[in-house]
Amino acid sequence: MLSSKTQEVSISDDEVDTSYLKTLVGYNARRAALTVISLFVPRMAEFGLRPVDFSILSVIGHNPGITSKQLCRVLDLLPPNLVGKIGALEQAGVLERRPHPSDGRALGLHLTASGYERMRLAERAAFELEAEAAGALTAAERRTLIRLLQKVYEGQADS
């Protein structure tokens, strides 16, 4: 139990005890995410993409005709948040809406030729920066880490 009276101790940064935090999945996942995001954000800026925009372009590019409802579900986005993103990407000329072939009420989302090219270049940059960020991992360790992280967030979908 901690005392309400604390003593001030002078310690250097390399002496700070974070051992408890390092036992927590959330702490470690967040630290890893911050490392990747610190590389991701400036590299995606050259393509005019923020992390969520990149995810949207990638999913649409690999799933032409996907609906907004499906996109919200797979990326765990709220519909009002997606509406503005889709509108901005459409105005930028990288995305277009077309009538859905099997659901007359829905519109399918498709990348334009320039949208597909932007996605392709951004995905290549993402692959390179992830290799840099995870350079201390072997290929097998990287695959294991991704599988384990997916197990954490996909397991929550069933709750």
UniProtKB/TrEMBL annotation:
InterPro entries linked: HTH_MarR-typ, MarR/SlyA-like, WH-like_DNA-bd_sf, WH_DNA-bd_sf
Gene3D superfamilies (UniProt xref): Winged helix-like DNA-binding domain superfamily/Winged helix DNA-binding domain (1.10.10.10)
Keyword DNA-binding: yes
Pfam families: MarR_2
GO molecular-function terms, A-Z: DNA binding
Domain HTH marR-type: 18-154
Signal peptide feature range: none
UniProtKB keywords: DNA-binding
Cross-referenced PANTHER family: HTH-TYPE TRANSCRIPTIONAL REPRESSOR YETL (PTHR33164:SF43), TRANSCRIPTIONAL REGULATOR, MARR FAMILY (PTHR33164)
Protein name: DNA-binding MarR family transcriptional regulator
Species of provenance: Ottowia thiooxydans
